[in-house]
Amino acid sequence: TDEKIVTAMCGGTFIAFVIASLNRVFKLGLLSKLAERVTFVLIPPLLLIFLVLGTIFLGIATPTEGGAMGAMAALVMGFARRRLNMDLLKQALGSTTKLASFVMFIMIGATTFSLVFQAADGPKWVEHLLTSLPGGQVGFLIVVNIMIFFLAFFLDYFELSFIVVPLLGPVAEKMGIDLIWFGVLLAVNMQTSFMHPPFGFALFFLRSVAPEKQYVDRITHKVIEPVTTMQIYRGAVPFVLIQLVMVGVLIAFPGIVTGALDKPVAVDMNKVGDQMLEQLNDAGGGYGTENPFGAPEGGEEGSAAPEAPKDGSQAAPEAPAAGAYGSDDPAKALQDSLNPAPAAK
Questions:
Q1: For the range 156-160, what are the long-range contacts, defined as Cβ-Cβ under 8 Å and sequence gap of 24 or more?
Q2: Conformational region of residue 82, where left means phi above 0, alpha means psi within -120 to 50, and beta covers everything else
């Protein structure tokens, strides 16, 4: 299982770290200088990866908690290696605040759009449009993926997730498509938004580090030409094609996603209703049929009707007959809801 694999990898990494530490302290000569150096260089990043992914696989932390542990470990490692100071920390916090505000405003706009769209019965229009496409599920998947691909040229991952996906999810569920597989498929497709010109985030990041002017390399002493924006756009095309190939693979082989999922359990509501009726009847002994006033239900022998007062005053009202409150019987109401009466002709 995944837990055993992760546990074994963590144990092997820890043993390698212990051996490398003993070799350095006692100078045992078990490792070469290169192997020892590589071990101490790789252990901290592996520890960071374990705190994020390992804790999630082992069930120790949720994805949110794993991300928080990874961020804290990265801060500790940065301070320990003296590559992080308070100025850089303030800059990182400022950038994080801006990004969080950016995402928050997208969520506010997406929520407002969704409310207005639902008020105008927009989901019904979308559902009618997509369910009437030729080809059934295959036609729906082709149209949706093409639409997501072209929207990714102008909208980023967050906007597509908050605006488009809530409109497509109910339609996919109505057509009998597994929502987990459908979500993974859309996520792989939406990843192309990071590499789509002209607004791909990955392209912006690469533009910020690529040289804009000609310079001489310090090691090879060769003249390096500047990298243009069009070169960056052309270089992103193969990676976009790889993402599209993965979309096709997920459509052709859905078992890649759904193979490890639990099979859905079919529940027969009629059987559940019958079982609840039996439990109510067994627990209450015909709950709802008893007389709330304590009067005899069938008229016992020797019982007589109450006499009218001799002074001419109004007689007290008689207790309602047994079964008069049958409409309030929860068992009977449940049975009526499960077996509705046929409509009158």
A1: 156/193, 156/194, 156/199, 156/201, 157/190, 157/191, 157/193, 157/194, 158/103, 158/106, 159/106, 159/110, 160/190, 160/193
A2: left
Q: How far is CA 59 from the centre of its chain?
A: 16
Q: What is the pLDDT of residue 325?
A: 46
| DSSP character at residue 64 | H
Name the amino acid, one letter, at 44: P
The CA-to-CA distance between both ends of the chain, in Å, stands at: 62
Measured CA to CA, the distance from residue 306 to residue 318 in angstroms comes to 8
Model pLDDT for residues 59-102, shown as the tens digit of each residue:
888 888 988 998 898 888 888 888 888 888 899 889 889 988 98
User: Where in the chain does DSSP place strands (E)?
Assistant: 215-216, 223-224
| pTM of the predicted structure, to 2 decimals | 0.57
Specify whether the CB–CB gap between 289 and 329 falls below 8 A.
Answer: yes
Other CB atoms within 10 A of residue 231 CB: 13
Model confidence at 1: pLDDT above 80: no
215 and 224 Cβ atoms separated by less than 8 Å = yes
Q: 332: Cβ–Cβ under 8 A, 6 or more apart, which residues?
A: 288, 326
Distance CA 226, CA 41 (A): 32
DSSP 8-state class, residue 197: T
The CA distance from 248 to 256, in Å, is 12
Instruction: List residues bridging with 215 in a β-sheet.
Output: 224
Return the ∠ at Cα 166 (arms to 160 and 168), rounded to 5°.
90
| Secondary structure string (H, E, C) spanning 255-316 | HHHHCCCCCCCCCCHHHHHHHHHHHHHHHHCCCCCCCCCCCCCCCCCCCCCCCCCCCCCCCC
Max CA separation in the chain (angstroms):
127
Q: What are 105's two structure tokens?
A: 């405003």
